[in-house]
Design goal:
This protein is mostly beta strands. The protein has one helix spanning 3-15; strands at residues 17-30, 35-52, 67-73, 86-89, 92-104, 107-117. It has a single domain, classed as Thrombin, subunit H, CATH 2.40.10.
Length: 118
Amino acid sequence: MNQFIQEAKYLVYKHGLNVTYTAVVEGVYDVDTSSVTNTETSNTIKVFPKRIKATQYNYPNLVSKQVVEFLVIASDLPSIPGNQDKIVFQSETYSVYTYSEHFALGEKVLYKIIAAKG
């Protein structure tokens, strides 16, 4: 296993917190209702949260909202983060706004997810 993945897992699992991550898969066609429905999958994962202040320069659409940056081990998520995904952190629900992938030695190590309350 990649040494960067090992160290990232060690640090996040040691210093991180448990959250409930709900991944939403769009576009599942239901034959019975003749409509497209979303499917949700919830998992408890360890993340390293950091509250950030949104400004007009870094996240202009999130100004005046509670924003948290979550560092998540890439292998802990069932799929790539999406804009409809939710994170329950300290009994509050945050919606995924954006994410970035971080690689080391050609492998995806972790995601940095920016999520906002509301």
